[in-house]
Write a structure and sequence with these properties.
By secondary structure, this protein is an alpha+beta fold. It has five helices and 17 strands. It starts with 20 loop residues before the first strand and ends with a helix. The relative contact order is 0.21.
């Protein structure tokens, strides 16, 4: 007759440490644009929570509302410089800033920068005339009618936006002020468009993204500028008639003054 052996003790349960996470908040979620607007600063404070206290990198990407961009190329024909038909790019953010605590190339590799749209070279710009084809057995390949000139036009779009201060990358804009605490200072130029902005806070460890938070802010016109903006966009006919009447009144007044002199 056999003797039943007691069951083996259960194996100890080893709990994995909780993943790292990031939290952040904007000091101002609403920026008001008036007639004397000369730009503003977007200030973001955040904290990294990691039980292992490993080294992390933070990348803050601020995007403005998307707007189409029209660009032309000058060509010389019969001794004259003429503009080619405009090429339209859609999906271009009106404002883009990639702020980090060190250069993006040191934070993560090209594949992640491309996938997460980090840096001005990786902004998603789609030509309006692009089409989808199947090439070499691969479906969904985007083909541009510009062919090899596509990259020249794309670089021109980015260059023009950079010249206006609307596209930039700053590897010193994020600073760790204490253990796990960081601050991001981002300049918003006077030419920045109004609308809804998104700030994506990416947390990296050993070159790989481990956490993401998104915060939003609004840039809006106030005062007389807001009234005229709403009138022009929501009641264009009324805006046009009022503009013509004001122009006629100003012209008649100027004519009457000079006639008296």
């Amino acid at each position: 007759m056999g003797v039943a052996l007691p069951p083996p003790p259960p194996a100890p349960v080893v709990l994995a440490p909780p993943p790292a996470r990031v939290s952040a908040a904007l000091t101002d979620t609403r920026i008001q644009v008036s007639s004397d607007f000369r730009g503003a600063r977007i200030v973001l404070y955040g904290a990294v929570f990691d039980p292992e206290r490993a080294r992390h990198d933070v990348v803050v990407v601020v995007r403005g509302p998307e707007e189409p961009v029209r660009i032309v190329r000058k060509v010389r024909i019969a001794g004259l410089w003429l503009n080619t038909p405009p090429e339209v790019f859609r999906g271009a953010p009106g404002y883009y800033m990639a702020a980090s605590n060190r250069p993006l190339a040191e934070v993560t590799g090209f594949a992640w920068r491309r996938r997460l749209r980090l840096g001005v070279d990786n902004i998603a710009l789609e030509q309006e005339a692009q089409r989808t084809e199947t090439l070499y057995g691969v479906e969904g390949v985007l083909v541009s009618p510009l062919e090899e000139d596509y990259f020249d036009f794309r670089r021109a779009v980015v260059r023009l936006k950079q010249r206006e201060g609307l596209y930039a990358a700053d590897s010193d804009a994020v600073r760790f002020v204490d253990e796990g605490l960081f601050r991001a200072d981002i300049a918003l130029p006077a030419a920045a468009p109004t609308g809804r902005y998104e700030a994506d806070i990416h947390l990296f460890r050993d070159g790989r993204p481990v956490a993401l938070r998104t915060r939003t802010l609004t840039v809006e016109k106030v005062g007389l500028e807001r009234f005229l903006y709403i009138l022009a966009h929501e009641r264009p006919w009324t805006y046009g008639v009022v503009s013509v009447l004001l122009a006629l009144t100003a012209g008649w007044t100027a004519s009457a003054v000079f006639r008296r002199r």
